[in-house]
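FORM 7B: Structural annotation worksheet

SECTION A. Query
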Amino acid sequence: QVPVLQTNNGPGVVGLTTIAMHLVKEAKQPHLLGRTGEQKTVVQQWLEYRVTQVDLCAKEDTKAILKDLNQYLEDKVYLAGDDFTLADILMYNGIHPIMAELTVQEKEKYGNVSRWFNHIQQYPGVRQHLSALVFLKNRLYSGMH
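SECTION B. Predicted structure
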């Protein structure tokens, strides 16, 4: 089902990313779409990834998405580099159901995703109706014996 936003002046705005971008512009928060040309492109790529990969993902493919995301976030705080953007908000919302089903051990396996996810869920207004997920701050065991 494709979301539609009815506006007061004209036809409805159709599609998740289009609606989100429209709301960012209406709220006069253009930095959420990226500050530089390169960052804007990266934000757009992640918005497309959310709609084409995450939203259409079969349950058996969720681990592949988490693996790719975990590798990508290895040296990043946010999806589009050094700034919190719309990409972080929509990806957080998109993978929340996946993260909610992970065991503690699986969350540790995808440590970079867990770090990013926990960081994003702390931002005011991002979580909305979604439950806060718990992540371990310290490892309970060491990999060395």
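SECTION C. Observations
The mean pLDDT is 90. The helical segments are 16-26, 37-54, 62-72, 86-100, 104-109, 111-121.

SECTION D. Sign-off
Analyst initials: ____
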